[in-house]
Amino acid sequence: MTKLTSRPGALPFRIEFGRRAIEDLHRRLDGARWPDRRFDAGWDAGTNDAVLRDLVHYWRREFDWFEWQERLNQLPQIRAPLSDLEETHAVVLAGSGERRIPLLLLHGWPGSFIELLPAAERLAADEGAPGFDVVVPSLPGYGFSDAPLEPGMHPGRIAERMHSLMTLLGYERYIVQGGDWGAIVGARLAHAHPEALIGLHLNFPALAPDDAQTDEEREAADRSARWRARESAYGAVQGTKPQTLAYGLTDSPIGQLAWILEKFWAWSNHGDDLWDTFDRDHLLANVTLYWLTGTALSSARTYLEARREQPPFRLESRIEVPTAFARYPAEPWFVPRSSMDRAYNLVRWTEAPRGGHFAAMEQPEWFANDVAAFAREVASA
After folding, report:
1. CA torsion, points 48, 51, 52, 54, in degrees to nearest 10?
2. Catalytic residue at 234?
């Protein structure tokens, strides 16, 4: 795997949090004020208290951020000025071989570029022909990308930023892969710049029509409605009052961890032990990134801006870019193939044997193989 050096207009970037930042984190963990819990509710009322306390102990006593920081700094990272006052961060990996397909991998919430790295590194190391150049940005307001300085950074505007990033890196045509917000941004990008996209790969049903027409679609709509009634409070808060929430999450690392941990439990494919699915250090690296960068508010605002965008979560016309959809069995946002067929030029549909919402982190090898197979299919068409 070759590492891409800096490109014109983009500067190399290193992560440089020091001891004081981690000492502050440890001080807050040591001085935490825990809620008075009179009985064990498990996960029924939110984050499981026993799992959280055990993970906080591990975070404080065993997790080593500096080991992760060193590891991440071995990867080529850039910050690029895609607007007058805001820069965008990305990991940029080059594959092998003379011919390589550019892949743009987009994360969502509560993920980050760290979530996608196991799959991204597999794709960049793939020795098949053609190979892959892999670009993994942090969305605006996430990780090391600057927070927007004014309202209005909705998925359509984020899509324009991502297209500008790929253009700056010298890629005239490329493939987009997205889950969660990354899927919605990817769909917006395919709608706005179809000439630039070789293909679109999704593992989240972004912008699918909600006008159920078949029995299967009506059943899926009922299933989704039941799920939203039980699980979507987080989206209502982040979509209406993210600033109120952010004061607590920005001040309390345990609050930030609890808010994110519950989603990894609720949206993933696991048994009784969450750590049979996720590596504890990998999940904590993702949460520590949110904490150290102080991005609770700027990341949550994506929900608010998406609600304010007109039309919200909808496209004016069908996406004709060749599209693949990988359905993971534990993905909470379930959609039948017929719905995706109406919204997209669907040329590939795969059913993953395992995995959920955090597909690239839960099943990185299967995820990478599926993306690679689709990329080579559409690139040779």
Report:
1. 160
2. no
Q: Which of 171, 180, 201, 234 is catalytic?
A: 180
How far apart are the C-alpha atoms of 161 and 107, rounded to whole Å? 14
Q: What is the structure's pLDDT at 107?
A: 98
Establish whether 357 is a catalytic residue.
Answer: yes
Q: Of residues 154, 234, 357, 370, which has the active-site annotation?
A: 357
* Residue 171 annotated among the catalytic residues of the structure: no
Separation of alpha carbons 368 and 40, rounded Å: 39
Max CA pair span of the chain: 63
Q: Counting beta carbons within 10 angstroms of the beta carbon of residue 313, is it exposed (0 to 12), middle (13 to 18) or buried (19 or more)? A: middle
Q: Are 70 and 16 in contact (CB under 8 A)?
A: no
Which is the catalytic residue, given 142, 303, 328, 344? 303
Q: Could you give the CA distance from residue 93 to residue 1 in angstroms, rounded to a whole number?
A: 8
Q: Tell me what pLDDT residue 3 has.
A: 45
Q: Per residue, what are the HEC states of the chain?
A: CEECCCCCCCEECCCCCCHHHHHHHHHHHHCCCCCCCCCCCCCCCCCCHHHHHHHHHHHHHCCCHHHHHHHHHCCCEEEEECCCCCEEEEEEEECCCCCEEEEEEECCCCCCHHHHHHHHHHHHHCCCCCEEEEEEECCCCCCCCCCCCCCCCCHHHHHHHHHHHHHHCCCCCEEEEECCHHHHHHHHHHHHCHHHEEEEEECCCCCCCCCCCCHHHHHHHHHHHHHHHHHCHHHHHHHHCHHHHHHHHHHCHHHHHHHHHHHHHHCCCCCCCHHHCCCHHHHHHHHHHHHHHCCHHHHHHHHHHHHHCCCCCCCCCCEEEEEEEEECCCCCCCCCHHHHHHHEEEEEEEECCCCCCCHHHHCHHHHHHHHHHHHHHHHHC
CA 114, 324, 310: angle at the middle one, nearest 5?
75
Spans of the chain, pLDDT less than 70: 1-8, 311-313
Answering whether pTM is above 0.90, one says: yes
